[in-house]
Amino acid sequence: MILADTGRRFTPLSPLGRGEKEGAMLEVEVKYANADFADLERRLSAWGAREGEPRDDADHYFNAPDRDFAVTDEALRLRRIGAKNFVTYKGPKRDATTKTRTEVEVPLADGDDAASDFARLLTLLSYRPVAVVRKRRRLFHLERGGFPVEVTLDDVEGVGRYAELEIQAPEERLDAARQVVLDAARELGLTANERRSYLELLLAARAKGTP
C-alpha cells in the first residue's frame, strides 16, 4: 500500500484549474536568510512559543513530463520525516512579498517501501527526480493576530540557516494572514527576505560549485 489508511471514503475529483482545489488552504509563508537561531529562540521564548521535537526532513523533488516546474513556479515533492511519508504539491506563488501559494499535502503509508514505490510510480509516469533537500528543522508554535503561526529554524544541508514563518489560511483571510506573518517577522528582527525555495537555493549553490 502506498497511500496512508485514513479511513476516509474516496470522492471523485472535480475538474479544477491548475493548482486549484475547492476549499484548499493557502500556505502563507515568509523565509529569511542569515537567521540568528540563538536570538530567535530568545524572542520566541518571550512570546511563549511552544517548541516541538526537532526533526530531520528529506525532501525528494520531481519535475513534470508536460511542463517545467522551474518555469511554472510549481513544486512536487516526496517528504520523508523518519518513517513518515508525505506527497506535496505547491502551486505558483501569489505575490512578490511572501511565498503565499496553494498547498495540497497527502500522507502516504509509513516506511521505506511506500516511499520507494511512490517514487517509482512517478518515474513510470515520466516524472524526473531533480534533487533531495535535507534539513534539520526545529518548530515553534504560537498564536498571533488570531492565527496559529508556525516558526521553523532550518539548517539546510548545502544551503545554510534560515527561518520560516507560516500560516495556513483560507482565501478569504489571506490579506490578514499575510500581514500577521510580515509583522511577526519584523518583530523577530528578520530582514533578509528570501523568496526562493530551498530547492532553488540548493541548485544555485551547486551551479556555483559551493560545497
What does this protein look like?
This protein is of the alpha+beta class and 211 residues long. It has five helices and nine strands. An eight-stranded antiparallel barrel has the order 1-6-5-4-3-7-8-9. Strand 4 (75-81) and strand 5 form a beta hairpin.
The largest sheet has its strands arranged as 1-6-5-4-3-7-8-9
Shape: globular
Biggest sheet, open or closed, and with what strands and sense?
A: 8 strands, antiparallel, barrel
How confident overall, as mean pLDDT?
91
Number of separate strands: 9
What's the assembly state of these chains?
Answer: single chain
Which regions contain 5 or more consecutive residues with pLDDT less than 50? 9-22
Helix segment tally: 5
Q: Which structural class fits the helix and strand makeup?
A: alpha+beta
Question: In percent, how helical is the residue content?
Answer: 10-25%
Q: How far is the N terminus from the C terminus?
A: 38 Å
Radius of gyration: 17 Å
Spell the H/E element sequence.
Answer: EHEEHEEEHEEEHH
Share of β-strand residues: 35-45%
SSE blueprint and pairings:
Elements: E1 26-33, H1 37-46, E2 50-51, E3 55-63, H2 69-72, E4 75-81, E5 84-90, E6 101-107, H3 112-124, E7 128-144, E8 147-156, E9 160-169, H4 174-187, H5 198-207
Antiparallel strand pairs: 1-6, 1-9, 2-7, 3-4, 3-7, 4-5, 5-6, 7-8, 8-9
Give a brief rundown of this model:
This protein is an alpha+beta fold and 211 residues long. Helix content is 24%, strand content 36%.
